[in-house]
Amino acid sequence: MTSPTSRPQDAPRPRPGGRTARIRGRVHEATLAELAEHGFAGVTVEAVALRAGVHRATVYRRWGDVGGLLADFLDAAGDDEWEPPDTGSLRGDLTALNREVFDALTARPSVVAALIAASFHSQKAEHAQRRLWEDRYARCAVLVTRAVARGEIPPRTDPRRLLVAATAPVYHELVLLRTTPDPGLPDLAAGAAALAAGGGAFTVPDGPG
Amino acid sequence: MTSPTSRPQDAPRPRPGGRTARIRGRVHEATLAELAEHGFAGVTVEAVALRAGVHRATVYRRWGDVGGLLADFLDAAGDDEWEPPDTGSLRGDLTALNREVFDALTARPSVVAALIAASFHSQKAEHAQRRLWEDRYARCAVLVTRAVARGEIPPRTDPRRLLVAATAPVYHELVLLRTTPDPGLPDLAAGAAALAAGGGAFTVPDGPG
């Protein structure tokens, strides 16, 4: 089990603007491009190294394998300034969030979909994907707190449960069922979750524990 | 694109009890056992043939590759007498349904989870998985019709949308987020979807089109 803060073996901590950071950036770009073009099964350390203009021995030493490359890419992707939408209503916020997910999953090629597929092949990619998602859900908790403060939903609404209910149908249709994308889906799923939240479907018991 | 009724190339239609049907059954059992033991990446046509006691040339000719084996297994799995739960209430039915999904995904080894993972590797397995899911959602539509008849939810509630909303969080947590299974999840997700359905979150406009 990889710890949430682990980095690829022997990887020096990148200094922004330094040579290490530049190499890491080039390798991430190359990983992304190879993934978008060929999908997980078609990505090789050799092709990434060639594309990045980095010696393949360096890539093997720092990232180990394709799973390591993807995991480090995902960790870097999570290390951003992303903030959840703030539209003034819970339904509006959840809809905007779902539209971001929908757009990412229906982009052609979809890097997000390719990374999800990769998480079924590589445990390193799986753990990194999970860290990224958990970080995103944690950042979105504020969206629930604001809705409680506005009196839209009951206090003690569990943010994660509500956020999973709102977003899960979008992932389910596009990643697992692979149905033709329905542009109305983000709003529909958000509206249903907001309605259920208003009715207290995601509240947790009072008190400690 | 595989049509919903396609069968593996050259596969004779199985006659129940006939030699062809017996071989198909043995091959399915062997596929299942190999998948459960080794996961998709570890399944080979050779090992399945050996385990089933069938010549590997026969397996190659009838099923083509591992994707073809899984697709035929999934098609056979969908060809059953399964019926959705009938507990007397929408929430009860959705909870029972979610518990079935939860149990299948948390079984160790989970054949269902392995088949989902396989759908990211093999287009044949992907199409078969999709056919199975769409068939299950279609069979469950009666559960929504009954709830409408009981007056629990508005007429014109779209069965598929409601069923996806109810079940998606279970798949999302266990297949994509891979969180520690929460035994309360089936009931929570079912309750939220039933509440939203009662409020009209899944109704479709009146009239044709």
From TrEMBL, chains A, B:
<keyword id="KW-0805">Transcription regulation</keyword>
<dbReference type="InterPro" id="IPR050109">
    <property type="entry name" value="HTH-type_TetR-like_transc_reg"/>
</dbReference>
<feature type="domain" description="HTH tetR-type">
    <location>
        <begin position="21"/>
        <end position="81"/>
    </location>
</feature>
<dbReference type="InterPro" id="IPR011075">
    <property type="entry name" value="TetR_C"/>
</dbReference>
<protein>
    <submittedName>
        <fullName>TetR family transcriptional regulator</fullName>
    </submittedName>
</protein>
<dbReference type="InterPro" id="IPR009057">
    <property type="entry name" value="Homeodomain-like_sf"/>
</dbReference>
<dbReference type="InterPro" id="IPR036271">
    <property type="entry name" value="Tet_transcr_reg_TetR-rel_C_sf"/>
</dbReference>
<feature type="DNA-binding region" description="H-T-H motif">
    <location>
        <begin position="44"/>
        <end position="63"/>
    </location>
</feature>
<keyword id="KW-0804">Transcription</keyword>
<dbReference type="GO" id="GO:0003700">
    <property type="term" value="F:DNA-binding transcription factor activity"/>
</dbReference>
<dbReference type="InterPro" id="IPR001647">
    <property type="entry name" value="HTH_TetR"/>
</dbReference>
<feature type="region of interest" description="Disordered">
    <location>
        <begin position="1"/>
        <end position="20"/>
    </location>
</feature>
<keyword id="KW-0238">DNA-binding</keyword>
<dbReference type="Pfam" id="PF00440">
    <property type="entry name" value="TetR_N"/>
</dbReference>
<dbReference type="GO" id="GO:0000976">
    <property type="term" value="F:transcription cis-regulatory region binding"/>
</dbReference>
<dbReference type="Pfam" id="PF16859">
    <property type="entry name" value="TetR_C_11"/>
</dbReference>
